[in-house]
């Protein structure tokens, strides 16, 4: 008997889960399991599966088949069902029953999505740039903002002209980060809104765009050609080289990158301001002490007992001696 995973469209138009999946489970005597889910295979993320009774599967007259996948095996192993498809790619997946948010839930996952959802990294807890408490301004229009709960950060909500997160020095924005999900990034890039946003960000001393998912997701788009997104991104990065677009694997890593980047930008801005003030101070001092006339330097030199000629240009060492005496 041939095992087959069947994917059909959900006839319930009001459901947020557009597909039905029927799994034959061999070796248990079960006729099959039916789930409502949002995808046809866990390609980019684990799919939540809502269990349905077996009679929820539409009859042949109303069955809209999307895909039939021949299976090598579909076997229950404790709380998981191992699904092995008879194809070379996207051939292994697992339907797992677990508990989340205090209730039982079912997820359909693949080795790739499991690795993406739980990357083997841990974020450091050391202060960024040695700053005891970094003040981060969050744009008042930002929905579901980062909390920076694991970092030494104090957040303030106020309106920002551009960007979603920023640091200020002397009341002026010196660095800002625009946060994007992959869906928002793709939509704003293809509509042209991202170009205008980068134009505003480029006017700041420092700015960046952070995407909460890896770059590989650019090539997993369903409603737009991946090449359009990849080419558009490359063109914008060439047009605005001072506004990097950074892809992070998860929301947590995007937050960590932003925290450390803003801290480094604030430290750098403070160093720049000190240098500018020092240069401007020297320039002001120089402007306040105008160059003396030859006659004044000659009179001063004679008063100091330095040998000078009665006329003509003064020797460089005499002029240097005058500057040394008056700067002191």
From TrEMBL:
A GO term for molecular function: acyltransferase activity
Keywords in alphabetical order: DNA-binding
Gene Ontology terms describing biological process: DNA metabolic process
Keyword Ribosomal protein set for record: no
InterPro entries: E3-bd_dom_sf, ERCC4_domain, Lsr2_DNA-bd, Restrct_endonuc-II-like
Chain ranges of the ERCC4 domain: 135-215
Protein name per Swiss-Prot or TrEMBL: Lsr2 protein
Species per Swiss-Prot/TrEMBL record: Quadrisphaera granulorum
UniProt superkingdom: Bacteria
